[in-house]
Amino acid sequence: MDFSITPDQRLMQDSLVRTLAGASSLDRVRRFAGDPDDKGADIHAALADFGLTGIVIPEEFGGLGLRLLDAALAAEALGRSVSPGPFLGAYVLAPLALRLAGSKAQQSEWLPKIASGEVIAGVAIAEPVAGARDGAGVTASGGKLSGKALFVTDAIIADIFVVADQAGDLHLVRGDAAGLTRSAMTTIDQTRPLGEVGFDGTRAEPLAGGVHALDSMRDAAWTLLAADTLGAAQVMIEKAVDYAKERRQFGRVIGSFQAVKHMCAEMAAELEPCRSLVWYAAYAFDDAPGEASLTAAHAKAHLSEVGRFIARTATEVHGGMGITDLLGLHFWFKRIGLNRQLLGGPERVRRLAAQIQGLTA
Fold first, then answer.
1. What is the pLDDT of residue 317?
2. The pLDDT of residue 210
3. Degrees (nearest 5) of the Cα angle 285, 287, 288?
4. How far apart are CA 98 and CA 136, in angstroms?
5. Domains of the chain and CATH, by start
6. Which of 278, 193, 228 is nearest to 80 (CA)?
7. 3-state secondary structure labels for all residues of the chain
């Protein structure tokens, strides 16, 4: 029995890596990170041409009709290139919300536009998933929303928003709705734009799936963040090994020193088992739903810890060069750091895993 990904899935991932090597090169990422007004339109266009905009949208709405495992393989490739283009919220979580909780009319109106890349969807679920902070949180009453949501994906460029209120119910809000305000948030990761969105009696359409749909969005998000970290950590290992083969000290390449060999070997040994963990979590989302929440929590928590270890160790292998902008290693370091905390740090995620297994109330 073959437990690996299929040849078609491997071909898709390899093709996306090659596409991103041109569309989201390190120089392009550096320009994006250094210009707050850069919306990454060319990167978004490349993702749309590749088909990522419709990756989990059913074929009847113009999408590819693929599964979360395919989206996880794409997320891994995006993590490898620290691509700043929209993906997690815009093209996975928002379509999932519409598929699980949207009416036929809502699906027919928005899914084809998302699949074509015409519409970008922002997703605001951080408060009910990861806990409210700084007075954040959204309340719903009479078809209108009030409050503010933090860590909203693609908040500045979104045309529509999927918003979860404090009760866990989902709502669809147009980006030009009266009473909606948006502003960029400053985070450690300049490659993934997040924002704050305010609502002041803002009209919203209910999505009927409620908490069940939100739980599925959370599981998908945790799995894809783990996949993104997997890709970013793999690149950091590769860069550390390449550097160790070139950098000379005391007349020898540093990779010949036992201590450096051990650092590189330990990084590889820590990361390799994570691949099957992430793949199975993504597989379980569609094919073993009873295990989806637990495996997603395990993937998110474990990759958060392993990713942090690799980010730190790979930087140490580079020595002082590791923190310079010349190598750009810090882009992957910060990407892994944000993935660790976004939509719940490992401590919170492990708490849910313990509750699912009946280990705590």
1. 93
2. 63
3. 75
4. 24
5. 7-116 (1.10.540.10), 121-208 (2.40.110.10), 212-356 (1.20.140.10)
6. 228
7. CCCCCCHHHHHHHHHHHHHHHHHCCHHHHHHHHHCCCCCCHHHHHHHHHHCHHHCCCCHHHCCCCCCHHHHHHHHHHHHHCCCCCCCHHHHHHHHHHHHHHCCHHHHHHHHHHHHHCCCCEEEECHHHHHCCCCCCEEEEECCEEEEEEEEEECCCCCCEEEEECCCCCEEEEECCCCCEEEEECCCCCCCCCEEEEEEEEEECEEECCHHHHHHHHHHHHHHHHHHHHHHHHHHHHHHHHHHHHHCEECCEEHHHCHHHHHHHHHHHHHHHHHHHHHHHHHHHHHHCHHHHHHHHHHHHHHHHHHHHHHHHHHHHHHHHHHHCCCCCHHHHHHHHHHHHHCCCCHHHHHHHHHHHCCCCC
- Under 8 Å between Cβ of 153 and 120: no
How far apart, in whole angstroms, are the C-alpha atoms of residue 134 and residue 185?
13
- The answer to whether 134 and 105 are in contact (CB under 8 A) is no
Q: What is the pLDDT of residue 91?
A: 97
Identity of residue 278: V
Say how far apart CA 19 and CA 50 lie, in whole Å: 8
Residue 87: closest CA among 221, 248, 238, 261: 221
- Measure the CA–CA gap between 93 and 102, rounded to whole angstroms: 13
As a whole number of angstroms, the distance between CA 2 and CA 128 comes to: 38
Instruction: Please list the rounded mean pLDDT of every run of 10 residues in the chain (361 residues).
Output: 82 96 94 91 94 96 96 97 94 96 95 96 96 88 96 95 95 96 94 94 88 92 98 97 88 85 96 96 96 97 97 93 86 97 95 91 75
Q: What are the φ/ψ torsions at residue 174 (nearest 5 degrees)? A: -75, 145
